[in-house]
What we know:
globular, single chain, mainly alpha
Amino acid sequence: xxxxxxxxxxxxxxxxxxxxxxIPSDGPHNxxxxxxxxxxIWEDIAEAAATLxxxxxxxxxxxxxxxxxxxxxxxxxxxxxxKRHYTPIE
Length: 90
Protein backbone atom coordinates (compact mmCIF):
# COMPACT_ATOMS: atom_id res chain seq x y z
CA UNK A 1 0.00 0.00 0.00
CA UNK A 2 3.01 2.35 0.08
CA UNK A 3 2.65 3.57 -3.51
CA UNK A 4 -1.19 3.87 -3.50
CA UNK A 5 -1.06 5.87 -0.25
CA UNK A 6 1.67 8.13 -1.67
CA UNK A 7 -0.33 8.75 -4.83
CA UNK A 8 -3.51 9.53 -2.93
CA UNK A 9 -2.10 11.74 -0.18
CA UNK A 10 0.34 13.64 -2.39
CA UNK A 11 -2.38 14.43 -4.95
CA UNK A 12 -3.27 17.92 -3.79
CA UNK A 13 -6.15 18.11 -6.26
CA UNK A 14 -8.06 15.65 -4.05
CA UNK A 15 -9.96 17.13 -1.09
CA UNK A 16 -10.36 14.76 1.85
CA UNK A 17 -12.67 14.79 4.86
CA UNK A 18 -11.12 13.92 8.22
CA UNK A 19 -13.00 11.50 10.43
CA UNK A 20 -14.50 13.27 13.45
CA UNK A 21 -12.35 11.36 15.95
CA UNK A 22 -9.11 12.97 14.70
CA ILE A 23 -10.24 16.58 14.43
CA PRO A 24 -8.38 18.60 17.07
CA SER A 25 -10.17 20.68 19.65
CA ASP A 26 -10.52 24.43 19.14
CA GLY A 27 -7.94 25.08 21.83
CA PRO A 28 -6.45 27.20 23.12
CA HIS A 29 -3.19 25.40 22.35
CA ASN A 30 0.25 26.33 23.60
CA UNK A 31 2.47 26.41 20.49
CA UNK A 32 5.66 25.42 22.34
CA UNK A 33 3.95 22.48 24.07
CA UNK A 34 2.48 21.22 20.79
CA UNK A 35 5.84 21.48 19.00
CA UNK A 36 7.65 19.67 21.84
CA UNK A 37 5.05 16.92 21.87
CA UNK A 38 5.31 16.47 18.09
CA UNK A 39 9.11 16.35 18.27
CA UNK A 40 8.85 13.60 20.89
CA ILE A 41 6.40 11.65 18.74
CA TRP A 42 8.69 11.86 15.69
CA GLU A 43 11.64 10.70 17.83
CA ASP A 44 9.61 7.71 19.01
CA ILE A 45 8.61 6.93 15.41
CA ALA A 46 12.26 7.14 14.27
CA GLU A 47 13.31 4.76 17.04
CA ALA A 48 10.53 2.32 16.17
CA ALA A 49 11.48 2.46 12.48
CA ALA A 50 15.10 1.67 13.35
CA THR A 51 14.42 -1.16 15.82
CA LEU A 52 11.16 -2.96 14.97
CA UNK A 53 10.26 -5.51 12.30
CA UNK A 54 8.56 -3.32 9.70
CA UNK A 55 6.92 -6.28 7.96
CA UNK A 56 4.55 -6.95 10.87
CA UNK A 57 0.90 -6.00 10.34
CA UNK A 58 -0.66 -3.66 12.90
CA UNK A 59 -4.04 -5.05 13.95
CA UNK A 60 -5.22 -2.39 16.44
CA UNK A 61 -6.54 -0.01 13.79
CA UNK A 62 -7.61 -0.14 10.14
CA UNK A 63 -6.96 2.81 7.88
CA UNK A 64 -10.35 3.62 6.34
CA UNK A 65 -10.36 2.45 2.74
CA UNK A 66 -7.06 0.60 3.10
CA UNK A 67 -7.51 -1.83 5.99
CA UNK A 68 -4.74 -3.10 8.24
CA UNK A 69 -1.28 -1.83 7.35
CA UNK A 70 2.21 -3.07 8.07
CA UNK A 71 4.53 -0.95 10.15
CA UNK A 72 6.33 0.08 6.97
CA UNK A 73 3.05 1.15 5.37
CA UNK A 74 2.12 3.14 8.50
CA UNK A 75 5.51 4.87 8.50
CA UNK A 76 5.04 5.86 4.88
CA UNK A 77 1.48 6.99 5.61
CA UNK A 78 2.77 9.25 8.41
CA UNK A 79 5.31 10.82 6.05
CA UNK A 80 2.86 11.54 3.21
CA UNK A 81 0.13 12.65 5.62
CA UNK A 82 2.56 15.08 7.23
CA LYS A 83 3.66 16.38 3.82
CA ARG A 84 0.03 16.97 2.93
CA HIS A 85 -0.49 19.18 5.99
CA TYR A 86 2.97 20.71 6.23
CA THR A 87 3.18 24.39 6.94
CA PRO A 88 6.55 25.76 8.06
CA ILE A 89 6.56 26.77 11.73
CA GLU A 90 7.75 30.30 12.26
